[in-house]
Amino acid sequence: MITEKAYRPYYYRTKLNGLETILTKGTWEVENDYMAGPFINYIVKDTQNKRYIVLEGFAFAPTQNKRNYMFELNSIITTLKPTE
């Protein structure tokens, strides 16, 4: 699985539950195959526990609109509440 070469991903700096976060949105594809779709990626800097948390969501639905799937994935991921 790779990031699609034709479209550069979008990067945003944001906060997720008060933690510094980098949000990435783009499309993925399987190299030498016909599978592809959108993805969302969060990299959360958890300074209290000295770690980074990576959360990713991928959608694959060849015959359907993926907007609602991405909205749902984003809603699930943003419920993050880090624990020790």
Folded structure, characterized:
It is built from 1 helix and 5 strands, in the order βββββα. By secondary structure, it is mainly β. Strands 1, 2, 3, 4 and 5 form a 5-stranded antiparallel sheet that branches. β3 and β4 (36-46) form a beta hairpin.
| Class by alpha and beta content | mainly beta
**What multimeric state do the chains show?**
single chain
Sequence of secondary-structure elements: EEEEEH
| Main sheet characteristics | 5 strands, antiparallel
Q: Report, as a whole number of angstroms, the end-to-end distance.
A: 31 Å
Short description:
By secondary structure, the protein is mainly beta.
Task: List the main descriptive attributes of the protein structure presented here.
1 helix, mainly beta, 84 residues, elongated, five-stranded antiparallel beta sheet, 5 strands, single chain
What is the strand and helix layout of this fold?
Layout lengths: L1 E2 L6 E7 L2 E11 L6 E11 L4 E8 L8 H11 L7
Antiparallel strand pairs: 1-3, 2-3, 3-4, 4-5
